[in-house]
Design a protein that fits this description.
Elements (H helix, E strand, L loop, with lengths): L1 H34 L13 H35 L9
């Protein structure tokens, strides 16, 4: 388990770093392209600060509930398997 878990963690970190780097590069390129055009024009906000704050708060609650559901489901699924002869990770 330790070796597989470490490999998965390393690959996840590589994927995360590459995605963040890709996003940063695209954002930087977009900003450079837009500098010459309309530097003084400011865009109006689509939603206000408190609307964005409420949306963020709602998403945090949703993700927390979804996380609890996933953990409970895995724990319920793990109990019958741990009694059997197959290991829990073989089911995934």
């Amino acid at each position: 388990m330790g070796s597989e878990g470490s490999q998965i963690r390393v690959w996840f970190e590589i994927l995360l770093i590459s995605k963040v780097g890709s996003f940063t590069a695209r954002k930087s390129q977009t900003n450079r392209e837009g500098e010459g055009e309309n530097m003084e024009a400011e865009e109006d906000a689509v939603i206000g600060f408190w609307s964005a704050f409420g949306w963020l708060d709602g998403m945090i609650v949703f993700i927390a509930l979804l996380s609890e559901y996933v953990v409970d489901t895995i724990e319920r699924f793990k109990k019958p398997i741990s009694r059997g002869s197959t290991s829990f990770l073989e089911w995934f």
